[in-house]
Every structure is written in structure tokens, then in C-alpha cells.
């Protein structure tokens, strides 16, 4: 078993785990419940860790992880509504002006 990634946010790490397991790679999250020990233990040692069960899967899992982290750090772009032409911030899934999702 090899450590692939550690992150403070369990929710985000679980999402990464799901995406990697969707590619057929078996993983395990350790330290999920150590957050309560923060302060008694060094902070970084309480972060959850994502481990790959099979060492042979590690290189492929690392490539997938790198793509996920790259996408998460890429700035989102504003978009123009196809119905009314209004510019919308990247965080909007529908047009704030007309309610269209195009």
C-alpha cells in the first residue's frame, strides 16, 4: 500500500477517492477521524490520507490525481448566455439575467 495524497478536507479527499476508484483503482482513506486530535497532535498528522492498495496502481493513480488537482486549481472562466448574451460569472450555472442554462 502506498500513500497517494493527504489533504485537510475529508470531503474533497473523498471526492478524489471516488474519481480514482471510478478508474478501477482500489483505495483507502486513513486518519478520517483524527481531526479531533488536532492541538494534541501536530496539525498535519491529523489530516486524512488517501492510500492506493496495490503498489502497481500507484503510477496510474498519481496521473489521475495530478489531473484532478490541476482542474481544481484552474481558474474558472466567465461565460456569455446563448439566449440573452449577458455575461455571467463562472460560478453561475444558469444566466442571472434570464434564467437560461445555454
TrEMBL record:
The RanBP2-type domain, residue ranges: 79-98
One Pfam family in the UniProt entry: DUF2007
PROSITE patterns: ZF_RANBP2_1
Recorded GO MF terms: zinc ion binding
Zinc-finger in keyword set: yes
Keywords annotated in UniProt: Metal-binding, Zinc, Zinc-finger
Protein name: RanBP2-type domain-containing protein
Amino acid at each position: 500500500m502506498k500513500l497517494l495524497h493527504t489533504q485537510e478536507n475529508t470531503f474533497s479527499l473523498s471526492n478524489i477517492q471516488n474519481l480514482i476508484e471510478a478508474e478501477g483503482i482500489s483505495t483507502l482513506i486513513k486518519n478520517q477521524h483524527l481531526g479531533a486530535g488536532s492541538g494534541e497532535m501536530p496539525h498535519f498528522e491529523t489530516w486524512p490520507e488517501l492510500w492506493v492498495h496495490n503498489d502497481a496502481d500507484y503510477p496510474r493513480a498519481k496521473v489521475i490525481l495530478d489531473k484532478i488537482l490541476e482542474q481544481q486549481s484552474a481558474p474558472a472562466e466567465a461565460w456569455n448566455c446563448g439566449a440573452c448574451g449577458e455575461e455571467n460569472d463562472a460560478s453561475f450555472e444558469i444566466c442571472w439575467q434570464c434564467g437560461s442554462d445555454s
